[in-house]
Design goal:
The chain has about 100 residues and is of the alpha/beta class. It is built from three helices and five strands, in the order E-E-H-E-H-E-E-H. Helix content is about 35%, strand content about 30%.
Length: about 100
């Protein structure tokens, strides 16, 4: 787990694509939290494949389809765990937003 002031970030990569640079993920999380005005947070970010995010969406939220991002609160204050797909749903969302994948 990496620390930046009072922001702790843990990343797990279990997706089908090439690894994403840890520094890039860390900077994206810090930029997002800063834009939202967060001064303290503990983030666990898991990048998973389509089948895994589909299973998580079904098992925890009752939605039987893949999605691009799921977030869950952790039991501690000022914490959030996020699970993001690096596969087809994320690519489709990026394309709709005009980004290349």
């Amino acid at each position: 787990m990496e620390q930046d002031s009072t922001i702790a970030i843990e990343t797990i990569q279990r997706h089908d694509g090439p690894p994403i640079a840890e520094d890039l993920l860390r900077r994206a999380v810090i930029c997002t939290l800063t834009a939202e005005g967060a001064v303290a947070a503990e983030i666990s970010l898991a990048l998973v494949n389509d089948a895994e995010i589909h299973r998580i969406n079904r098992d925890f939220l009752g939605h039987d389809y893949p999605t691009d991002v799921i977030s869950f609160p952790l039991p501690t204050d000022d914490s959030l765990a996020a699970c993001a797909s690096a596969g087809e749903p994320s690519n489709a969302t990026a394309s709709r937003c005009g980004a290349s994948t």
